[in-house]
Amino acid sequence: MLREVREELGVEAMTPELRAVYYELGVDQHHFAFRCRLPDGLGPKPRSAEILECGYWPVDALPRPINDFTIQRIRDAQSSHPIAVQVLGPRRWFT
Length: 95
What we know:
- The protein is α+β, with helices and mostly antiparallel strands.
- The chain has two helices and five strands, in the order H-E-E-E-H-E-E.
- The strands form two sheets. The protein has a three-stranded mixed sheet, covered by helices on one side. The chain has a two-stranded antiparallel sheet with strand order 3-5.
- The model has no long low-confidence stretch (mean pLDDT 90).
């Protein structure tokens, strides 16, 4: 997780904490949500072709299109307690 943040956002994340683990049965894949901090005064800067821009939005006003799983991971990462493994169902897209 730390390497991905460094490679894609050009910043060293600190104090990573695992918040949630998800299992996607249809593709036999695990997903993870972490909570971490960025150093004071530093923000993310896109550094890879995968990330075109970065920004901050309230969870209830995230840019669209977006799916329910992305929103769930953000909410779970913001929670103050780790969440047990969740089996994922089909995703719903919001436009």
